[in-house]
Specification:
By secondary structure, this protein is mainly beta. The protein has one domain: AttH-like domain (AttH-like fold). Helices cover about 5% and strands about 50% of the residues. The protein has three helices and 25 strands. It starts with 9 loop residues before the first helix and ends with a helix.
Length: about 400
């Protein structure tokens, strides 16, 4: 979000922290899908004000690679990696590795205990075994204490237990590592384009609420190589990845119940990012936004009025019974771009602390009347959410 945000889950970790202190007292993976995803995004976030934290409320100068590192004065930030890769024999896979930091207080204080922490961390790791139509998702939580989790600048690294993303000195090469039992990834990502500043030169507004914005940039094309382990079998892979970075202290608007986000890599070397905020009344949100990046890295920002996103078909999860879109049309008339976006496999639902759909997608369509194809990732958050209650809205 994001992309996630993106949109991609920037507020989810904040809600998790507010909802249950018990979460940050453990570090592990939730195994029982029936007990997970009990928290509702819209209701939990309606009263979050971000009081005392820094806000994304105006332009700023971005500095790379420094901004790949942490921004502790903000309540929430995340590092978000997704990608589509293949084996030499053509076996297709998708992956997601995300790290979310949430501050517990806007005013950190020195405390004698080495277990004291001002931040909690959550990380998600998912693999889509597209050829076998299987999906695997894992989650860890930890306090930022005892070196269990954190983000550092020297070296430039983000980690939670043994899941990590480490940047080289230039910030253009990233090493990703994660393991959960017989599932793992060990990937090297190399950037070929400069970071793209989303929104108004990196200020991405989500709603009209004071502070309802984030600082947001993306690395939209990262050549990827390494290995993925599926159920104990290691596969050498190559492909393309995408990184989203966002930090903020804002909330959902009172009428917003979730979002749909797309990161799309076309085979002509260009990329498209678009995000749609979903409203409780079903109307179009004025804060929908997007970007098109050409093969040379030149960006064009899209407003809500400049693209149309339609749903082709829906899919119902056999576990949660929630219905998600499972096919879309994307039209950008000014760019003469028309795409059909389809999940690489239908079931890519993560039933973790929050339930959402995040998965690999494939693209077919036309640009300037000529056929075009590609791959990407989509994120669907807040399906099954209820509009905030009147009591929650009065607490804002």
């Amino acid at each position: 979000m994001g992309r996630a945000v993106t949109l991609m889950l920037p507020w989810i970790v904040a809600a998790l922290a507010a909802a249950t202190v018990a979460v940050w007292l453990k570090s592990g993976t939730s195994k029982d899908d029936s007990t997970r995803a009990a928290l509702d995004v819209a209701t939990m976030l309606a009263g979050e004000s971000g009081e005392g934290y820094l806000r994304a409320d105006g332009p700023r100068e971005f500095e790379f690679p420094r901004d790949h590192g942490p921004h502790d004065g903000f309540r929430t930030e995340w590092w978000y990696f997704t990608g589509n890769v293949d084996t030499a024999s053509g076996q297709a896979m998708g992956y997601q590795l995300t790290f979310f930091r949430t501050a517990l207080t806007p005013r950190p204080t020195a405390r004698p205990s080495t277990l004291a922490a001002d931040h909690i961390w959550m990380a998600h790791f998912a693999l889509s075994d597209i050829s076998a139509r299987r999906f695997h998702a894992f989650e860890h939580h930890s306090r930022e204490a005892g070196d269990l989790a954190g983000a550092g600048r020297e070296p430039l690294r983000v980690w939670l237990n043994d899941w990590s993303a480490e940047f080289d000195a230039s910030g253009t090469t990233i090493l990703l590592k994660a393991r959960e039992g017989n599932f793992a990834l060990d990937l090297t990502l190399r950037g070929s384009k400069a970071p793209v500043l989303n929104g108004a030169e990196g200020l991405s507004r989500k709603n009209a609420v004071v502070g309802g914005a984030s600082y947001y940039y993306s690395m939209t094309r990262l050549a990827t190589s390494g290995s993925i382990e599926l159920d104990g079998r290691v596969h050498a892979v190559e492909g393309q990845s995408w990184m989203d970075r966002e930090w903020m202290s804002g909330t959902l608007g009172s009428e917003q119940i979730g979002w749909d986000w797309f990161a799309l890599q076309l085979d002509d070397g260009s990329e498209v990012m678009c995000s749609r905020m979903r409203r409780s009344d079903g109307t179009r949100d004025a804060f929908d936004s997007g970007s098109i990046i050409d093969a040379q890295g030149k960006q064009r920002t899209l407003t809500s009025a400049e693209f149309d996103l339609g749903v082709l078909v829906n899919w119902t999860s056999p576990r949660s019974k929630l219905e998600y879109p499972a096919g879309w049309t994307l039209r950008v008339p000014a760019m003469r771009l028309e795409l059909e976006i389809l999940p690489a496999q239908a079931d890519q639902e993560l039933g973790l602390s929050f339930r959402y759909w995040e998965g690999a997608v494939k693209l077919l369509g036309t640009r300037d009347g000529k056929p075009i194809a590609g791959r990407g990732y989509a994120e669907l958050v807040g399906y099954g959410s209820r509009p905030p209650s009147s009591a929650a809205l009065r607490a804002r």
